[in-house]
Write a structure and sequence with these properties.
Largest sheet: 3 strands, mixed
Oligomer: single chain
Order of helices and strands: HHHHHHEEEHHHHHHHHHH
Strand content: under 5%
CATH architecture of the largest domain: Orthogonal Bundle
CATH superfamily of the largest domain: Oligoendopeptidase f, C-terminal domain
Distance between the termini: 47 Å
Number of helices: 16
Structural class: mainly alpha
Radius of gyration: 20 Å
Shape: globular
Number of strands: 3
CATH topology of the largest domain: Neurolysin, domain 3
CATH class of the largest domain: Mainly Alpha
Strand order of the largest sheet: 1-3-2
Helix content: 55-70%
Length: 352
Amino acid sequence: EPLDENRMSRATLEAMWDAVTRHRHRLLPYFERKAQLMGSERLAWYDVHVPAIRSEARMTYDEAATFILEQFARFSPDMAALARRAFEERWIEAEDRPNKRAGGFCTSFPVSRQSRIFMTFSGAPSNVGTLAHELGHAYHQHVIDDLPPLAQNYPMNLAETASTFAERVVTDAAIHHTTDPTTRLALIEQQVLDCVSFFMNIHARFLFETAFYEARRSGPLSVEELNRLMVDAQRRAYHDALAEYHPHFWASKLHFYITEAPFYNFPYTFGFLFSTGIYARALAEGAGFARRYADLLRDTGRMTTEELAARHLGVDLTRPDFWEEAVETALAPVERFLELSAGGAPAGNGDH
């Protein structure tokens, strides 16, 4: 059922997880460096997703808008034009005010052919990536606006394609343009943490849920049994590299309780790697890729994932090649983080 909902085959899922499993050990040196920076012998579960590097650099909303438009335009004038419309027509509610929650969200209005974005922009470098991410969602809707309603209904695993792509375009440019070494390292670390999330955390959830359904065939499970399954999955996904794990994660994560969507996990990793693989193609092919990219997005609601990749990328998702390339691109920031943090956290000047 989850594979059908995401219009993909088991062979594709297995090819993706095989590539992740073969290479995610390359994240372990990051864990070791992070533990050093945090003054710990080994990271615990609660340390893993806390950034070791924090930047005090700030950017105004108008500066962020200008920067995003410049980077979008380098890839696709059409993508930049849609983002400019979003800024000028005030589709974005980004005010930073008391009691407003963090994060980002984009929703579409197909009849009026507009989108609305909710986020909190506080000026942190990561906010620029979040804003680009949500504008990517708006662009995805833009390119399918003229299609019949059912042809606009793309599956969850493709929902993050345009958003992750747009965020990567802007974040890579920010890393290149910043003059502050702390900001550069903080942005690179966020890219590394994305890999930790999608290659380890999400896979632990997938392994747990797989083991849970198998064990449940024999009857109900006790709290102790659920805890054991959870820790076993985390140990496997994190290569037994942590000092402590989270046995009650199964009780605290909402996604396990969305009964109409079992395995609410692997589509995240698929979306991250599919988008990353597309980004690698864009880097290789240059400006001419923008049209192919828009055509790919237009077909996300009317093809299987395998058909989509074959038609627009010329790849077979059931084979390892595409996934190996995507994983390689995703993990590239790890070596850069290790290189730039070799002497400890850099002293930043706060400029953006």
